Amino acid sequence: MGMSLSLAVARRALLLALVALLVAVVALVAAFVADPGSDDAADDVDTADLAEARTAAAAAQASAEDAAIMSAASAAKADEAAVVAQEAVVMAQQAAAAAEAAAAQAAAALEALAVAQAAAAADGGTQPAETSDEATEAETPTAETDTAGATEDAGETAEPAAETDADDTDPATDTEDADAADTGDDQSGETSTDGADGTPDDTPEPAVSLPGEPYEFGPPDGAALAVVGVSHDSVLNVRDVPAGEIVARLDNVMNVGSEPVVYVREADSDALIATLDLNRGVIATGNTRKLPTTIWHEIRMADAVGWASSAFLSPLGSTSDATAQIVAVLGDTPAAPTLAELARVVAGAVASDDPPSRIVVSGAPVIGDLAEITVDVLGLPDDAVRGFRLQVFAQQDSDSGSFVLKSVESTTICDSHRGVSEEGLCN
Question: What is the b/e burial string over 103-138, where b = at least 16 CB atoms within 10 angstroms of the residue's CB?
Fold first, then answer.
């Protein structure tokens, strides 16, 4: 609007200048064409007319110059107005682009939210498949971290495993190796319908929609598995589907003066469902499922069937005396104020730094003429050997009360998808 007003003023000034010039020209022409007289009075009149014409011409010229100045000023203002208008257009374009980008981001966010809600609904609503099982466990025990400040000291007496909840997620330092090609026989993802004796059940059961997707790197049907990497005062949860509802709990019972076993307990009580062999009582069905952050094996426990995290299930290989090897690595026979500390020192001799191994006291310390404790070391940089289960024996010094290593029995822990050979070696 400012630019239009300036142009109007300029046009008006030019029009006035043209009118003034026209008047001056008319006056000059009239002066020259007038009939000249013979007397002095006529000469005076002619001279006066000529002077008046010249004065009008000068005034017209001045008006024209003023009009030209006004026109130039108006043109300058018009240019300034044009620049401002152009800047306003650029700013409007930038604002429109920013608004369009914001709208696109909002649309993308709404689409991502819709996808997440759809995935959550497909996974059962209350527990999305993409969340790790650790996130759904409300009672993760502090004992699972197994830090150097643990309370298993020399004064501990043998106690059964406490009824705390195990952390079912794959530990960051104990990831599953997917380089091998051993696959399960049944990747259908349906709940097993076999009877307790392994024969097919004639009663048909409806197919169950399972979270995740079939995963080929799992133990085959019939493979014997052990519960590994679970603290002696914790349990491993077994669920109806991967990351689903708890249907049973597996409780390792070792180093208590009796035959080591696995207790299968009810989900919400201490009632026993079954008692299994420690090393071979848990049997794989051949079904493995992969969720975004965890891998799950379907297992058979006597008459019960359920799903448990692969991070805590592995076949065990052969057992050998590792005392000389441990002492050689440490440089001397180790001793420690508590059995738990001694177990960690011994475990450090076989653990790796990259990736860092996970060390868990899996068998409760037993104090007697010959003290005993079991520790699991998991997460080795090997595509077949996952770790070792070390059974540490020690004698307590009568003077200092410290525990001195007597011997170490080492059992190889194999990756669940690699299995064990007839010679007890990891495939």
Answer: eeeeeeeeeeeeeeeeebeebeeebbbbbbbbebbe
